[in-house]
Amino acid sequence: MRFIFVFLGLLSCSVWAQKKESSTEKDEASMIIDSLFEEDEQLDTDEEDKDLLESVFADDKELKELFTGLSDFKFLYFSLDYNSDTYFSGRDVGIDQYNVRPQITYLNSKGFFASISGIYYSEFDPKFDFLSATIGYGKSIGKKKRIRFTSSYSRFVFLNDLENPFTNNLNLGVGIRTKNRNLGTRLSTSFSFGAQESSFQISSTIFARFKLFKKTKTSLFFTPSVNFQVGDQLIFGEPVFVVVDDEEEIFQEEDEVFDLMNIQYNFPITYSTEKFDIEFAYIFNNPQSHGFNEYNNTHLFNISIAYLLEL
After folding, report:
1. CA-to-CA distance for 242 and 146, rounded, in angstroms?
2. Percentage of the chain with pLDDT > 70?
3. How far apart, in whole angstroms, are the C-alpha atoms of residue 296 and residue 93?
4. What is the C-alpha separation between 177 and 206, in angstroms, rounded?
5. Which terminal Cβ of the chain has fewer Cβ within 10 Å, N or C?
6. Is 93 exposed, middle or buried (0-12, 13-18, 19+ CB in 10 A)?
7. pLDDT at 114
């Protein structure tokens, strides 16, 4: 069982990347598609159930078989994410801190899902300053169910005194895998907006899946990926020093552009049992510099644990 729903809260973060976001930039479409299991045409189940199962139980044959015979099911997925450092679109803002993101996700057999998540920052005040609620729907298409579409809406609540222009997000995603499910790509678009401002982002990911070992009730997979994040951003020109009324002042030109923001390389290893997942990942960011904005490469470690509860 892969980390199928860690994506939901972090989708929220990608849409306000210039303000605050989690370091692990996973989106909802990506993690659902990552959970597609290998083809098993011997399963005796109707198409709707098989469609959903293919989008949930990637590596756990026992759980897959458990739900195969059911025409209707639902469950809760509890997850906890720890990131050793905090960056925004891979960019270091000069604050050395870790973050933790708890999340609860509900999914039913019709393809509808909902989640509530938050983020705890070790050095911010308040430390727990962000909540996100998401609802969405996903469906696989095609004879082999290799293509999956996902859509969702998220509402953000900020628990600080800062001006946060983005409080809503709409996301559309599509992903496709090869026949053996070991290679794939996905593309998602994200539109975030508030009372007066809006922002648009595109995220593209290429990923692979390698089975290190698999036994009856346990498995170990290595799933490296590279993600390209493109979006609206504010860039600054070179500072210009001028004298106004015998006082020296600094002026910088500002410009809004739509350009590549970050390239992220993710190297996770996931250990799964029937009910629990634990994932360790090394993440490397290559934030892109534009204009007078200069950013150094960043990296961090991620640990995720999760538990599946049948309803």
Report:
1. 60
2. 77
3. 11
4. 10
5. C
6. exposed
7. 94
Specify the pLDDT at position 8. Answer: 32
- 3-class secondary structure, 50: helix
Length of the chain: 311
pLDDT at 39: 35
Contact 203, 188 (CB under 8 A): yes
pLDDT at 219: 92
Token pair of 89 as six digits: 């679109």
Can you tell me the distance from the alpha carbon of 28 to that of 10, in angstroms, rounded to the nearest whole number? 8
Domains and CATH numbers, the chain: 7-229+258-310 (2.40.160.40)
The position carrying tokens 């299991």 is: 37
CA distance 178 to 186: 12
pLDDT class of 85 with cuts at 50, 70, 90: very high
Residue 197: per-residue pLDDT = 87
Looking at residue 162, its amino acid is L
Unique residue bearing structure tokens 């996905």: 186
The beta-strand segments (E) located in the chain are 74-83, 99-108, 112-121, 128-141, 147-158, 168-177, 183-193, 198-208, 210-214, 219-222, 225-236, 240-244, 247-251, 254-272, 276-287, 298-310
With 70 as the cut, is the pLDDT of residue 10 above it?
no
- Give the Cα separation of 296 and 287 in Å (integer): 7
Whether a cis peptide bond, with omega within 30° of 0, leads into 126 is: yes
